[in-house]
Write a structure and sequence with these properties.
Structural class: alpha+beta
Number of strands: 10
Order of helices and strands: HEHHHEHEHEHEEEHEEHHEHHHHHH
Largest sheet: 4 strands, antiparallel
Strand order of the largest sheet: 1-2-7-4
Strand content: 5-15%
Number of helices: 16
Oligomer: single chain
Length: about 350
C-alpha cells in the first residue's frame, strides 16, 4: 500500500473526485457517532423506537444495534467517506401540482431512476479512485442499503446539520439530496472542515407544514402519521382518519421540504437519471388509474415506485380520487374496481365513492 498523503491533500482529492463523480459534497469521518462517547444519536433512536414511531417497520427495531454502532456492520472499517447527491429534478412546480386535486403528486425523489442504482455506481467509482491513489484495500459502499445512521455520519463529516424535519440540510442545497457512504479500512485523515452550524434556530415551518402532524416534535417524525410511510411502506388500508389529509399525494410527501426556507435557493439537478418519466411530475389521477398491472410494471421499471405493488398503487390513487372534486368520470372509474381482489383497494374505493356521495 502506498503511503497516505497528508490530511489536507487527501481531503482535497476526495472532494475533487466526488465532484467528478457527480456528488455535491464529500467529507471524511470516523465510525464513532459521538467522539465524546455520549451517543445522543443512538439514544434518540432508542427513544424513537420505544415510542412506536417506526410503525410497522420491524426492520428498524431488528437492526437497532447495528444502527447505533456502525462498527459492527463492517468491523475492519477505520474511516467513512460520506457524500451528497442532489436529486431535485427540473419538474412541474410541486406547489402547483399539490394545489390541483385532479393531479397526482409523486415525491420529487421518485420521479426518475431508482436512486439506489445511481448512488451505488458513483460510490463504486469513488472507491476505485481511492484505490488507485493509495493501493488495494478493503472497502464497501452503502446507498441507503444498510442499517446505518447515515444522517449522523453526514453531519459528522461536515455535510450539513440535521433539521427539525429529520433530514440533513446544507446551506445552498437545502435537503434535496441523497446520502451515501464508503466504509474503508484505511485510516484516512478526518476532513479538517468544521461542523456545519445548525441553521434551524427558532424556525418551525416544517412542523406547521406537515399535513398530518407527523413531525410530533423537532427532529422527531412519527411514521404512523407520516404520508411517506402511509403511501409507501404501509400495507393494507390506511387509517380512515388520515385519508382526507393525504390529499392528492400518491407516493411520498415533500411538504416539510417545500416549507423549509433553506430549500428555496436550491437549484434543480442536471442529472438526467432523475428527470421525470412518463409525465409523472404532473399526471392526472384518472390517467394513472387507467394503468393496468402490465402497464404499471412496464412504466415503473427501474424507478423507486417499484417499492409498491400495483394494488397499493391503486389504493393510493383511490384515496386521492376520494379527495378530488366529485365528477361522473371519477365515479365511473372508481366503480370499475369495486370488485378488485385486494381488500384494501376495495375498502378505499368504497370510501372514495361514499365521500363523493356525501359531498353531493
Amino acid at each position: 500500500m502506498n503511503p497516505l498523503p497528508d490530511s489536507a491533500q487527501m481531503a482535497t482529492w476526495l472532494r475533487q473526485w466526488a465532484q467528478e463523480a457527480g456528488f455535491s459534497g464529500a467529507g471524511i469521518t470516523r465510525l464513532d457517532l459521538d467522539p465524546n462517547g455520549l451517543d445522543p444519536d443512538a439514544d434518540h433512536l432508542r427513544r424513537w423506537l420505544a415510542s412506536g414511531h417506526h410503525a410497522s417497520m420491524a426492520y428498524m427495531q431488528r437492526h437497532a444495534d447495528l444502527r447505533a454502532d456502525p462498527r459492527r456492520l463492517r468491523p475492519d472499517t477505520l474511516s467513512v467517506v460520506s457524500v451528497r447527491l442532489p436529486y431535485r429534478p427540473a419538474a412541474a412546480e410541486a406547489e402547483a401540482v399539490l394545489a390541483d386535486p385532479t393531479r397526482a403528486y409523486v415525491s420529487r425523489y421518485a420521479l426518475g431512476r431508482d436512486y439506489h442504482r445511481v448512488l451505488r455506481a458513483r460510490l463504486l467509482r469513488l472507491g476505485r479512485r481511492l484505490q488507485q491513489a493509495v493501493g488495494p484495500h478493503g472497502y464497501r459502499v452503502f446507498a441507503d442499503s444498510a442499517p446505518i445512521l447515515e444522517k449522523a455520519l453526514a453531519r459528522n463529516a461536515g455535510l450539513g446539520w440535521i433539521g427539525k424535519h429529520s433530514l440533513v440540510i446544507q446551506r445552498g442545497e437545502g435537503s434535496w439530496f441523497f446520502l451515501g457512504e464508503l466504509f474503508t479500512d484505511l485510516p484516512l485523515p478526518v476532513d479538517p472542515q468544521p461542523p456545519v452550524a445548525d441553521g434551524c434556530a427558532r424556525c418551525s415551518a416544517c412542523l406547521r407544514a406537515c399535513p398530518t402532524g407527523a413531525i410530533v416534535a423537532p427532529y422527531t417524525v412519527d411514521a404512523r402519521r407520516c404520508i411517506s410511510y402511509l403511501t409507501i411502506e404501509h400495507h393494507g388500508a390506511v387509517p380512515e382518519a388520515l385519508r382526507g389529509l393525504i390529499g392528492n399525494r400518491i407516493f411520498g410527501c415533500d411538504d416539510c421540504q417545500l416549507a423549509c426556507p433553506w430549500n428555496r435557493p436550491a437549484a434543480p439537478t442536471s442529472e438526467p437519471d432523475f428527470a421525470p418519466r412518463h409525465g409523472l411530475d404532473a399526471a392526472k389521477l384518472l390517467d394513472l388509474w387507467q394503468w393496468d398491472e402490465a402497464q404499471w410494471l412496464r412504466r415503473t421499471e427501474g424507478m423507486p415506485l417499484r417499492r409498491l405493488d400495483h394494488a397499493r398503487w391503486l389504493r393510493n390513487l383511490a384515496t386521492a380520487l376520494g379527495n378530488a372534486p366529485p365528477s361522473t368520470a371519477i365515479g365511473a372509474a372508481l366503480n370499475r374496481h369495486r370488485q378488485h381482489p385486494d381488500a384494501a383497494v376495495r375498502e378505499h374505493v368504497e370510501w372514495a365513492l361514499a365521500r363523493h356521495a356525501n359531498a353531493g
